[in-house]
Amino acid sequence: MRSRRRCVPFGHTFASLAAGAVTVALALVGAAPVAAGPWDGVTAWETAFIERIVDGDTMIVRDEVTGATSRIRLLGINAPEIDTAQHGGKCGGWQAKDVLTGLLPVGTKVRLLSADRSSTGKNSRPQRVVLAVNPQTGEFDQDIAWAMAERGWGVWFTLAKEAAMSSLYRAVVAGAQARGEGIWNRALCGAVEQPEANIELRIARGPVSSAPTDEWVVVRNVGATAVDLTDWTLRDAGNQGWFSFPGGTVLAPGDYRVVRTGAGTAGLPAPQDLYANTKVRLYPDPGTGTALVGDGAYLLDRFGNFRFWREYPCTVDCGEDPLKGQVVIEDMSLGKKKGAKRVRTQWIRLVNRGAATQCLDGFRIQTQDRWYRPAPGTCLAPGSRWTLHVGAGIPDTANAYWGLTQPAFYTNGTVALVSDRDQTIGRRAW
Q: Residue 205: inside a domain, yes or no?
């Protein structure tokens, strides 16, 4: 059966949801791809009864037809873990389980949907949208993941083949973040330590085929006081990449660390480099499809409280330039003659016309299907210029070298400065 119902979050009427969905869609226009309808392409596969709640995003259900039991994982969010015999728990884990238990008491009848019936997660758990019956309508239109996200009990979590409703889940999570609800309450699991801390996260993704060390998160102190990150944790939306900062990680104002996903030796090749020693890349390409795919970087304090985060791609206020309009493409050269000489004479120059230093952490220069990402720590002081040369050379603070052996710019084309949230900040066409 093809489900076309617009599911109603707990405590909302159908009319209020419809209005909210329109608002979300309008906010996303021009920022990120949006499906024709939030539940288009999602099919109902099973009807079942709740047997047990495992944690904030997992449940045991009994199939209404076959009587078989299965372990179901919610699509759309990732709730904090509870402690078990196999692993420790996370801040908010038990609270999330309690909330889900209240939403789905044992015996509750639910409908399970997905775009692909074969969608499974860890330990082959079927991944499903879970709908409960709305007592006001008598229909399966109460979206459980939405209800959990609205209460702040999960981070936004996407899968490429199950992303039909990602735009709406992202908007609901953003609302909980803004209100400081659930896990977004920075004092949920202990007193707020270093309340004056002001940390900026930037995600630098590599090309799809790149190695895990070719993606990283820059963690920069943009505040006025030093911040001690000892035993603070950096994670993505999933459960594969968790990194704990070693003792003595103190960032003075303006200082930063580069946490690379793959394996390596701390302090190499640059003193700021750290390694999460994760075997696979964590941050997927958003792609160009109709559904929203993305991820986030989250910084948690010693108590496990969510303190700072960065999510991509941009979905709200995407016209807002994170560099505040200060850094622009000033000039470029298509090169002279042909071959190697043309490569050596191609370049693109940025200038900071503002009054504050701006850093290019996570940004990229993009032309056609080629990317160049400035090295971590590339910052432009007021009035300064930074030139990317297409050929090889020895870099310094004002010059970087792409190292290509073929031209990057041809007879016609475009080059763009793109943020880590896939916002085009500047563009030059010829």
A: yes
